[in-house]
Structure formats: C-alpha cells, structure tokens
Amino acid sequence: MLQRTDAASDSLTVEGTRIDLIERGKGRPLLFLHAENGIEPAHAAIDELAKAAHVLAPSHPGFGRSELPKGMHTVDDLSYFYLDLLDQLDLRDVTLVGVAFGAWIAAEIAVKSAARLACLVMANAVGIKLGDRETRDIADIFALTEPEYLEIAYCDPNAGRRDYKSLAPAEVAAAARAREATARFAWSPYFHNPRLKSRLHRIRIPTLFLWGAHDRMVGEPYGRGYCALIPDARFETIDRAGHFPHQEQPKIFAEKVKAFMEEQ
User: Fold this and answer.
1) In what order do the strands lie in the sheet with 94-99?
2) In angstroms, how far is the first alpha carbon of the chain from the final one?
3) Is residue 91 predicted with pLDDT exceeding 60?
4) How does DSSP assign the chain, residue by residue?
5) How would residue 2 be classed by pLDDT, with cut points 50, 70 and 90?
6) Is the bond preceding 189 in cis, omega lying within 30 degrees of 0?
7) Band of the pLDDT at 9, cuts 50, 70, 90?
C-alpha cells in the first residue's frame, strides 16, 4: 500500500517501507534516481527537469531519512522496490533517469521490466565489470582521502567540497548515511553486479548515456563500453563535469534529458 503524508518533504510508503520523495513539475512522468552522494546535490538538476516534466525524485532506502527494510542488501533489491513503486503509483510512459549509483539501479530495473518506461537516461553509470580480474574499472573510493576523492570525482573539486562543521546536523547525518548505504549496496562485489552485463541486451527502449567528460573515478572508455552493450543506445558527453554531471552542470544535464524525452 502506498501512502502520502504531509511533511517538510513528501513521504511515500511502498510495501511497508517509508521513503522521502521530492515531487515537482507537470507533464510526462520522470523518475529520477540519485547518485551515491545522495539527493541533496541533485536539487538544482531536479528543479531544471521539473520545468518540462512531472519529476519524482525519491531518496533511496537507507539514504537521507528513508527507511531501510530488513533484508534489503543489494541493488537488485532496490530495483524491485522501484518496480513496486511504479506499479503502485500506476506510472506509465516514464522517463527513467539515473546518475552513477542511481544509473546502476535504473539498468537493473530496465532489464527486468520496461513495461512502464518510455526511455532511459544513464549518466556516468556504474554496475558492470568490463575489465579482467586484474583491471580496476572503478576507483576504490573507500581507500581515498576526501581531497583525493574530490580530485577524481569532480571536474572542479570545490563543487563537492563541504564544510561539515558549518552544516546543519540533518545534512551531516544525510552525508554519513549516504556513505554508509553506498558501502552496504556497492562494496562487495565492488560497484557492480556480475550478472548485469549479460542482461543488458534486454533493454529495448530508447537509451541515452550521458557522461561527465572529466570523470576520473570511472573513465569514459568504461562508459562507452557499457553503452555499447545496450541495443541502439546513444552516448553523449558533458564538458566541465565529472562523475556527477547533474551537480556540476545541472542546466546542461537537464537540457540533454529534455531533448531526448522530446524525441520519443
């Protein structure tokens, strides 16, 4: 059962799990799945997308203030959670947009069922292993210091820098929860599902790969290789952006998503 409550942000209960949800704009439905750094850095991009679509942007279970049900440990689990959400909201012809970790969830959804989807946008996606066992596709972010991480994840490291001492307690808690949840869902195996690569051919809806050209956490060759595994998927870069192009270039990111939606 799905319920909506009145709070500072909307709240949805899906099959007994309460999550926070941002809902803005009018028009065609767009489900936005945030990256591993949480929903807060996505606010500007959500505002831009809401100028042309009815945007639903949930905080994933375990992130922000969203509940984490017992037994939910994998991105596969998250994908079924969102399939339930789509069913319970009875959303149709949805533009599914995911960034980084959120793009991994989006791919897991699309290989299972695209019945409610019109098109798919994946930005700086993770989720598969392309190299051999001796080759690292994705930098080990848990082995890096904060400055080292910012250098590889952002075109401009200042875009991701936070003064935690000056942040409100709720923002600090959200950042900590995002890191904890990322480790829970993406630690082992590291940022990928060994089965997903062989299932990508099942994605038969129009698909756009967006890629922050300055991502040094996950390189462009990985993105192009990932894109090539999805039938007829298109690849476009976003300059002056790293692993989180929606955060560093929200207007350009939204413009590319909107242009792709209008083609469908």
Assistant:
1) 4-5, 10-14, 17-24, 54-58, 29-33, 94-99, 117-123, 207-212, 234-238
2) 31
3) yes
4) ---EE-SSSEEEEETTEEEEEEEE--SSEEEEE--TT-SGGGHHHHHHHTTTSEEEEEPPTTSTT----TT--SHHHHHHHHHHHHHHHT--SEEEEEETHHHHHHHHHHHH--TTEEEEEEES--B---S-TT--SB--GGGS-HHHHHHHH-SSGGGT---TTTS-HHHHHHHHHHHHHHHHHHTTTTTB-TTTGGGGGG--S-EEEEEETT-SSB-HHHHHHHHHTSTT-EEEEETT--S-HHHHSHHHHHHHHHHHHHH-
5) very low
6) yes
7) low
Which tens digits make up the pLDDT trace of 20-63? 999 999 999 999 999 999 999 999 999 999 999 999 999 999 99
CA dihedral 36, 79, 61, 182 (to 10 degrees): -30
* pLDDT single digits (tens) 125-164: 999 999 988 889 999 999 999 999 999 999 999 999 988 8
pLDDT at 6 > cutoff 60 = no
**Residue matched to tokens 């905080």:** 59
DSSP-derived pairing of the beta strands 4-5 and 29-33? unpaired
For the chain, domains (ranges, CATH) are: 4-263 (3.40.50.1820)
DSSP for 15-45 reads TTEEEEEEEE--SSEEEEE--TT-SGGGHHH
